[in-house]
Amino acid sequence: MSTINDSTDTAVRPAQQAAVDTPTSIGESTVQDIPEGHLPPGIRPAPGARGPRRIWTGEEQAAQENAEDPTRPVEIVEHAGGQTTGAAASWPSRRTVRRRARQGGAVYKLQTRDGRRTQRRVMGIDVARGVALFGMVAIHTLPAWSEAAQGPTVTWTLFAGHSAALFAVLAGLSLALLTGGRRVQTGRRGLRSRVGLVLRAVLLLVAGLALNLMWFPAYNILPYYGLLFLLAVPLTLMRAGGLIVSAVVLLVGSPFLTYLVVRSTGAESVINPSLVDLFADPLGVTVSLLLTGSYPAVTWMAFICLGMALGRLPLHRERVQIGLLISGAVLAVSAYAASALLIFRLGGMQEIVSRTPGATPSSVEDVMIFGPEPTLPTTTLWWLAIDGPHTNTPFAVALSGGIALAALGTLLLVSRLAGRWLRPVAAVGSMTLTFYTAHLVFLSWVDVEATPWFWFGIQMAVAIIAAMAWQRASGRGPLERLLSLLCAAPARLIVPRSQAEAARADDVGSPPGQSDQHTAAQHRS
Description:
Blueprint: E1 2-4, E2 10-14, E3 24-26, E4 29-34, E5 44-46, E6 55-56, H1 59-68, E7 83-84, H2 94-103, E8 107-110, E9 119-122, H3 123-141, E10 145-146, E11 151-152, H4 154-159, H5 162-178, H6 187-211, H7 222-232, H8 240-265, H9 275-280, H10 282-292, H11 297-311, H12 318-345, H13 348-355, H14 361-370, H15 394-418, H16 423-429, H17 432-445, H18 452-473, H19 478-494, H20 499-507, H21 516-522
Parallel strand pairs: 2-4
Antiparallel strand pairs: 1-2, 1-5, 3-4, 6-7, 8-9, 10-11
Helix pairs in contact: 3-5, 3-15, 3-16, 3-17, 3-18, 5-11, 5-15, 6-7, 6-19, 7-11, 8-11, 12-15, 16-18
């Protein structure tokens, strides 16, 4: 596209590259290339051909950051406030401005290791992590039974089993983002990311087992997380379709596998296995972590696969977020209704009571509300039709998975409209490992049973204040940063960058014609 001033003989056309201002004579007129967005007053466009412009979306820079630190949880949002390269990037288009307005606080920045606030994170995902953490703290701190209502409390009904499932789905989502997001990483970069994940899994497993040396009135999920991460490494090569199929197969098949193993061997769950337990009874601890524990890895891999499938989707798109909300709600309602139909209408309750010694309808309902103690009975397959917390049946997994999808979709949508108001929750969600560990240590020292709401409020207030202050001063949480450093350096040592990869990284490290500071300023959300 060319521009011409009718009152003069000077023609001005936008430059395809910045800082090209050499005049060229055309007859009696003078044509001058200048950066687009800096046209002098009085110049208006005239018809003319215009070359294509390359759009910079930030993916190249984010890919380089991930290559340098493959264990860092950076969420990439395509075209979220993206800018054009070169001189054409000086001013955003009207479409970009409208898109920013629709997004609201959907994307925010987190300080990187070099001190520049250029790492972009999806607000809704961190908010979901924060909500999952608050839910787990509520389950561990607040009472499960209401004397006034003579039934389970609202917090127990909302969060028991479901907050941990949301945690697991988001963990799978992070695994997908760490290995390329929508585009599966391959080659040396992908291998380096997967080596970092193996190291992360081992460190989480060991740290979780070491943390269990203390006593606290809660089920520690960290050892299971380490094992889940380790089992998920081969699945990081799969795309969304294959991951969804894997999640369905695990949802249906793994509870039956656990049922058969427990029934044939009599294996029992080891509550919060520690390093001492691992050395004293390695087989029992392994079976507990894989099959019979509170968060059995074989069954909970369904949540990991579901989250990894979500990480391969464009979660920044509104229609995808609405789809998550609707599909999650349909899945949760269907699982709940099917379980109730089987138990209360098709004879499930009678079969369980008649085949289980000492069972009564009241005790079966208690298992459906509060979960088994500690493992689900194996007297009949009808036990697999219930959907209580930590029962790990197909219906329980489907119910919690549907709630996790609906919650994530809802929080992604809400973050588009009220992202600024959710920054405190997102700050906590960006460092859940730190605060979850601190929560368990707190429970080991403080008896919260006497005044549960007081101690719940104290934990929430301290978490929010500390998260906001730490994020503003340093970025990622202390344990998150330590874990990344412990994994990234060995991963780079084991799989070093090739010369071609290093050269390519230098070429795409920042958009052409812009400094890093300019890039950060243009991508404020």
